[in-house]
Amino acid sequence: MQILIIEDEPRAANQLRSKLAACNFEYQLLDIIDTVEDAVLWFEKHTAPDLIFMDIQLADGLSFEIFRKTDIEVPIIFTTAFDQYAIQAFKVNSIDYLLKPIQQDELHHALTKFTKTNTTPSFDPSILKKLLDSMQTTTNSREGILVKEGNGFAQIKIRDLLYFYSEDSITFGVTSVKRYIINETMDQLFSSLEPNQFFRINRGQIISKNAIQKIEAYFNHRIKLSVLNPRDQEFIVSRQKTSDFKEWLNR
């Protein structure tokens, strides 16, 4: 069986490959893609695989954008860090999903389901809209975040966070005076933040509008940002996100 992995976190993609091997699942991996843009280009140039593993939050936006730009008529197993409320829409639409971190038995069950059926799930736009609406509802309700502080924990107001970044698989949140460790992945974190206030400028950084001090053109059609309390971080908006970033600034 030929499979395609659409996932923007290399560690998650490698873990999925290891778990597939542990399932004794015979497959040929065609490619690993990390952006909506590259996925659309891939489908334009290649024959569709037998099965796709697709993350929801990619480096340049939600993977649902892929369906708006190209036709996909093969089974998909979504992988997601979103909560149970957000993914109820998948059950209505007969699309399977795996909640991160992926469990071996759940992966095995999903593979068994797809190898025993020849049916192809259809994508109902109204169901996808419900999913996006549920994500938005979750996003708008979050006001605080639990962080590690000393031997315990503390709650920080979301409005006090200037930016988030990932380093060595650890997520950090930075205020004007301090850096905190956050026990969430970048995908989990970004899915819960107010989209008009925070923007994921690349795979490893999420920025608040309140943090931006200066915006400069950068080589290869990218944008460089000067921010408050940078802590030796360099903030470069990826080429794929430059257009969306400019639009976000105008909201």
Element order, helices and strands?
Answer: EHEHEEEHEHEHHEEEEEHEEEEEH
Q: Using only CA atoms, what is the Rg?
A: 19 Å
| Shape category | globular
CATH structural architecture of the largest domain: 3-Layer(aba) Sandwich
Query: What portion of residues is helical?
Result: 25-40%
Instruction: Sketch the major β-sheet.
Output: 7 strands, antiparallel
Strand content: 25-35%
Helical segment tally?
8
Q: Mean of residue pLDDT?
A: 84
Indicate how many domains the architecture comprises.
2
CATH class of the largest domain: Alpha Beta
Instruction: List low-pLDDT spans.
Output: none
- The CA-CA distance between the termini, in Å, is 45 Å
CATH topology category name of the largest domain: Rossmann fold
Question: How are the strands of the largest sheet arranged?
Answer: 9-8-12-11-10-14-13
Modified residues (4-aspartylphosphate): 55
InterPro entries: CheY-like_superfamily, LytR-like, LytTR_DNA-bd_dom, Sig_transdc_resp-reg_receiver
Protein name: LytR/AlgR family response regulator transcription factor
Domain HTH LytTR-type: 145-251
Primary descriptors:
seven-stranded antiparallel β-sheet, 17 strands, 31% helix, globular, LytR-like
